[in-house]
Each structure stands twice: as C-alpha cells, then as structure tokens.
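Supplementary Data S3. Sequence and structure tokens for construct A.
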Amino acid sequence: MAPSRILPFPFPIHIGTDICQISRIHAILSGARGPRFIRRVLAKEELVRPRGHVKAILDGDVGRVRDAAVFMAGRFAAKEAAFKAHPWRRLGFHDVVVQRVGFEGREGEGEGSGPPVVRIRGGEAEQMAMVSISHDGDYATAVCMGFDPAAAGGRDGPRGEDGL
C-alpha cells in the first residue's frame, strides 16, 4: 500500500552538480572567442589576479590553452552546480565567485590552500556555499551544496504542507 502523504525533505538544503568537457572549453579558448568566454564566466574579483594560464589567454597567448581549459572547465562546472543548488535565486556567472577559504575559515587571496567555496550574490544577502571541483581525463565536475534561508524557518519550507 502506497503512503497517503509524501513527506518533504526535512532540511532547507539543495544539491547541484555539473560536468564539463575540457576539450569543448579548449576549443573555445583556442579561438578568437577565448578572452570573451573567460570574461563572461569569471567575475571581476576572479579576474583581478587571474592564474597565469588564464592571463595568457586574456593577453592573446594561446600557448597554455590546455592548462587554462582545465581550470576554466572546473570553474564553469562549479558555477553551473551553484545555479542548480540555489534554484530560488536568479543567478548569472558574475553572481557566483569561486574562492578559497583558509582552514580556519578565513578568506584567502584567490589561490589559498583551503578548499574552494562559492560566494553567492545578487538579489539577496551574500551567502557562502560548499563546492567540490574534480578533474579526470577530459572532464571537470563539480558539486555544490546550497542552503535556503527562507525555508529554514519552517519544516515544510516554501513548498507547502504536502511537500509538492
């Protein structure tokens, strides 16, 4: 016998995931659209001190495209995962900033030694979210865990009593 009521997930947590093919990003970065793609995906804060291989693409040097493609595929996947983990927000690439946080919770200078996190902005108060980025072969993947503060007040959250 099927249950008469579907219980909602009891926590205001959402998970987003994405996978990105590195060779696809490599093809973009190898062409004339490379610098424009980087500026479209990375926020201003991420462009202040770009990694060497990303800076080379921005400067028109396509000699280090493979390293830049691996990095950019990871960032692209992380931002797409963040979009999916925050479905109640209308986010664009520049609303999600991937950064490092030190192990004691202190913000790093872009290339810190701590794990990556995403800073979510746009529309509401800024918020941090956990993210994990991984690379294997021709793919970069990312998972993001988001928290919905509006749903935290009530067990049923914004979906209503029936969880739908």
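Construct B, processed identically:
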Amino acid sequence: MKFLKTTEIVKVPENVEITTKARIVIVKGPRGTLKQNFKHTKLHLVSDKEKKEVTVTLWLAKRKQVCGVRTIVAHIQNMINGVTKGYRYRMKLAYNHFPINLNIPENGSFIEIRNFLGEKIERKVRMLEGVKVFRSEKTKDEIYLEGNDVTLVSLCCAQIHQICNVRNKDIRMFLDGIYVSEKEFIEED
C-alpha cells in the first residue's frame, strides 16, 4: 500500500534561522552554523520564514520510505538543538590494575592514550572538526567532549571507545576502557 502524502512540520525557535535549497539544510543560531545534505532522499523540504517552520513532505511512498520523513525531522531538530544549546558527552576511564594515562594537548585536537592494560604503545585519536575535548576539573578520570553537531561528537566518543577495546582476553574480567557515562546539553533552558 502506498501513502499519497506524508507531511511533518518542524517548528523553528526565534533565535534560529533555517534555509533549505536543493535538499541542503543550513541552520544558523547563537552557537554557530550547521549544514547537512539530504540529497540521498526523495523528500521535499520547504522552509517558511514568516511562519518559522520547515515542512518535510514525501509523495507516493511505501511504509519503509515514510519512516525517512521522521528521520529527517529528527536530524533537523538535532541541528536546532546543536546551534542553540550544544552537546556535551562525558566519558569515564575505567581500569583495574594499570592506570590509563590520558594526554590532551592545549588545542584539544587529539588525545593520546598510554598504559592501557600495561601496553607500551601509544594510541592517538584525532578529534573531528568542531569537537573540543578537555579534562574534568572536579573528577580525576573523566573527560568531556563538546560540540554543536551531535553526530560528530558521538562519532569521536565511539572512536575513543573503540581504540580501547580489549582483545584476546575475557571481556567479563577485563573491563578496562573509556566509556560514555553521560550525555547532556551544554546550555540548559
């Protein structure tokens, strides 16, 4: 069965400006600008500046294609939250015997991980553009990753987590690693 027309509307806050052109969405807000390309979809995106809303429409689609409408709406809402509030991920270092040494240079463009499970090798994770990493001042083994784009911040967290995977050992016993402990907005309402 095909659905004739599926429409979702995204309300835009007062301090945010959205422009759509050829399925490319640009969101400008107080924290910066985000741009995302949706050319891989068959959706119709229209931004209305007077009503302060974005309309996402899909014509003659099956049920699985209709799911894409809500996905694009969620992406746009994440972009709006990013340019108004920003995203912060908190990661904790977990170790049992060998303490993990973490070095973050002043510019925060990458992190160096040493002494993971007592290994001598140095692991480096380069941060993506727009993501800042810094140590927690209150807690000893904790780092923060901040940025406007939730996909880039979460991707950096995943890269840090994956570089510290325990291999060739029983993961029920060796729980060492760097894990995401909390996700929050930088600026609360």
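Residues 28 and 65 are 28 Å apart (CA to CA). The chain has a mean pLDDT of 93.
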